[in-house]
Amino acid sequence: MHQTSVAINNRTENGQMELITLQKHNKQWKDIFLKEQELIFNALGQTIDKIHHVGSTAVPDLLAKPVIDIAVESISFPPSPTIIDKLATIEYECKGEAGIIGRFWFTKGLPRKFNLHFCMTNSDIVQKQIILRDKLTKNDYLRREYELLKLKNYKDKDIDSSEYAFAKSDFIQKVIATDTT
Predict the structure, then answer these.
(1) Is residue 170 part of a domain?
(2) How many structural domains is the chain composed of?
(3) Which residues form the domain of 140?
(4) Torsion of CA 71, 72, 77, 79, to 10 degrees
(5) 103-161 pLDDT, tens per residue?
(6) What is the pTM of this model?
(7) Sequence-distant (≥ 6) Cβ neighbours of residue 153 within 8 angstroms
(8) Where are the alpha helices (H) located in 55-123, listed in sequence order?
């Protein structure tokens, strides 16, 4: 088990420095997700089909940035101005598709505490996030390989979050496409 806390410097869109860290899995992340899930359901109600905890914070025994990734499946896609306004009332900022067609990205907190991926019900984007989460949860070798990739990319350069995501993308696509169970 890695006990490492690694700092990565990243700039937010408004130019402020945001410190991103990789931390040992925190069992409280599940409870934090569940509270946020309830808040989102209360704000959006019937427009939501499912809300999932995805990303590294959803995987036990994996180093992760302390940012909870939430995938929302909705029958109402793209999100209407009303949905965007309702998410704003619970402090989510809409970033648009941000380079991923079929997903609207919302963030909450500075430093960031939540990423919300708003997608159509049964979207490939959410299904891939769930497949990755489940495979990493079940396979210790894949978790360790993923951790090493995260650490290697930190050690090689000071990277912003888009570079960091890109550095992991080949591994993620391989895991999703491969039968590792």
Answers:
(1) yes
(2) 1
(3) 26-177
(4) -100
(5) 999 999 988 899 999 999 999 999 999 999 999 999 999 999 999 998 887 544 333 46
(6) 0.86
(7) 159, 163, 164, 167, 168
(8) 81-89
